[in-house]
Amino acid sequence: MEDTFVRIQIPQQKVYDGIQFPSVVSPTSSSSLSRLTHSIHFHKQFLESLLLESGAVLLRGLPVNTASDFNEVVEAFGYEELPYLGGNAPRRNVVGRVYTANEAPPDQKIHFHHEMAQLPAFPSKLFFFCDVLPASGGETPIVPSHIVYEKMKERHPEFVEQLEKHGLIYIRVLGEEDNPSSPIGRGWKSTFLTQDKIVAEKRAARLGMKLEWLEDGGVKTIMGPIAGIKQDEARQRKIWFNSLVAAYTGWKDERNDPANAVTFGDGKPLPGDVVHDCLRILEDESVAVPWQKGDVLLIDNLAVLHSRNTYKPPRRVLASLAK
């Protein structure tokens, strides 16, 4: 037996091009986890059609209570896992292919970004799961990439032209070990999944990243030039695909100054007023759905940017990345 999924409406949804964003679905009953995973497998084509249509699907009212349950839901979709190699955020493996989401302190907002957009190998899909409900705040706001591109092209055509022509360079300084108090606090050992500098250099080179070792055992990473605008082939439209706002406004800790974290691909600095206007566009166009316990949010990483609002603990949102 399998359940069917029905589309439901929530107050936070927006309508873009006549399409509700995000799509929200719920199973017709929530009797058991095994029945749910069977239903996902059976109705995968329907769920993927919603993902293609809107870029994000919120599955609500699920019998998903633990990290292991969430792992089974992710497995039911059948996507290949993407190892978190080269990313910024401190994360811990919880079970199977499930990890903690960015564990930056609750009073720090994580700004809008595409997951691993500063790297050539990035996930195509992201899963998030609300394991422990936030006391307050803690939403994961999302925004369609093509809308951001269209608004930026309309308001800052020269900036977009430079971005398309030159791309971006991202610069970050990593310590040896993870720094959980920083939103970009992943040390180089866990970033490159090795204790060996030579192995780290080889893995960085495969990503197209240059490393400059520092006397204190840390390393400066230089990535790019890499595209800041992409073509979404599945939907045949241009998209805003980068982490420039997140880097410029949020890559800050004792090692990193966000003003130096990202430049145009030719090395020229980004105009701060334009970056901050882009942040305004992201905030204005975004949708922030308050989490409910058991929610699973599936995001197409090409089509949608995500962020994280500040919150009052407790909160535990888990994540899984797919190729």
Keywords:
323 residues, alpha+beta, Double-stranded beta-helix, 2 domains, 8-stranded mixed beta sheet, 4-stranded antiparallel beta sheet, 27% helix, globular
The geometry reads as globular
Computed structural class: alpha+beta
Helix content: 25-40%
The name of the CATH superfamily of the largest domain reads Clavaminate synthase-like
CATH-scheme architecture of the largest domain: 4-Layer Sandwich
Integer-rounded radius of gyration: 19 Å
Number of E-type strands: 21
- Low-confidence stretches are none
CATH class of the largest domain: Alpha Beta
- Arithmetic mean pLDDT: 95
Fold and architecture overview:
This protein is of the alpha+beta class and 323 residues long. The mean pLDDT is 95. The protein folds into 2 domains: 5-105 and 122-136 and 289-300 and 312-322, Double-stranded beta-helix (4-Layer Sandwich); 145-282, 4-Layer Sandwich (Double-stranded beta-helix), CATH 3.60.130.10. Strand 6 and strand 7 (98-100) form a beta hairpin. The chain has an 8-stranded mixed beta sheet, covered by helices on one side. Strands 13-14-12-17 form a 4-stranded antiparallel beta sheet. It is built from 9 helices and 21 strands. Helix 1 (33-42) packs parallel to helix 3.
Gist?
27% of the residues lie in helices and 28% in strands. The chain is an alpha+beta fold and 323 residues long.
